[in-house]
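Quick check before the chapter quiz. The format below is the same one you will see on the exam, so make sure you can read both the input and the output lines.
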Amino acid sequence: MRFYFIIVFITLISCQKKDVNIYNEWNLSSYVKGPGEIVTNSGFYLKIKLTEDKNFTAFLNTNECYGDFTKGVKNFEITNLYCDTLCCDSNQSIEVLNLIKDSVETYSINRGVLKLEGGLFTKLEFNI
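Here is the expected output.
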């Protein structure tokens, strides 16, 4: 009986899915820019890429922005951000980039969804 319990326990542990880590490319699905102002990403493009060597890349409608990021257990910060130019990008993608740069303080990942949150009701959700 004990042997069967151990086998079942090992099987359950080995079958648990590991969550996705932060080092990935993430597509914006929605964001909150103020109390009750949820914006679903429709009609504009924004993707971010986070690499293990702490590089941050934002792919906007037309241009790209680069920088570094630091993260702790849950805290998150973008530093040294620079862009090719912000000409021809949508107002929404620029707004989201500014929220990431200026307001985001924490992150969490759950079932393939990256959530970035910060002060002033800032919440951004990304999917792989």
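If your answer matched, good. The domain at 20-127 is CATH 2.40.128.270 (Lipocalin).
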